């Protein structure tokens, strides 16, 4: 066995044992019994693959505990399905490595294909509560981003007082979040699908809305220049859109770019129109605060 092939086999071993430990740790913190069973089955598969390559190298390889800890943190923050699917997205380098190994060990291609098919089958079995309420979260985030960025842009030019804009934006945002939660509750109650609970749907919508409101008005609380605060507010809005769109694109396996630019374009367009309305209102009423 030449040095390059041995190096590739050891890398494959390291990948398999690292993923074995990741899936075991995820299974240990998972409360849903069916999800836990799926994760344990995947972990055992990874361990079997590690043992197969160990027969050829004759060496033990340590897992990357940095990667194990990183994925555990992601699972705590963003949930199980997002974390596992993000892992699967990052396996193109491992697949390329297996392709090279397959030139000398044809079973590598079979193992790679079996692993891909088996894991895809198991991943489809995963069930996570928050993914059933993605529609409610989207409703809360999208409405808050569109309505509040527009309102803050209009208020910035009309009032030109950062503290006053923050206070007005906060009152408007909280009132709107209560209204959206109530609407989502009533909307969910009328659905035939019993998978979503009306109260949970309302809470997800309200929390997403309030979180976005708080983030958007923070610049007005710490900056005296309202125009600088508006620029930072729009930056935060784009950051929220980017992070949430990335989450959805991974968890739901949807295209990222089109959804991001659609949501960002809508929010920025409404903000620009509202900024113009603020200018007209200020000029018409001759406001000086």
Summarize the structure.
The chain has two domains: 3-127, Up-down Bundle (Ferritin), CATH 1.20.1260; 130-285, no CATH class. The chain is 84% helix and 0% strand. It contains twelve helices and no strands.
Q: What's the number of structural domains?
A: 2
Tell me the number of strands: 0
Overall, the morphology is: elongated
Mean pLDDT: 83
Distance between the termini: 80 Å
Contiguous helical run count: 12
Task: Report what the structure shows.
The protein is built from 12 helices and no strands. The protein is mainly α and 289 residues long. The protein has 2 domains: 3-127, Ferritin (Up-down Bundle), CATH 1.20.1260; 130-285, no CATH class. The chain is elongated.
What topology does this entry show?
Elements: H1 3-29, H2 33-57, H3 65-78, H4 80-89, H5 92-101, H6 107-123, H7 129-132, H8 134-159, H9 162-189, H10 198-222, H11 226-251, H12 256-285
Keywords:
84% helix; 2 domains; Ferritin; mainly alpha
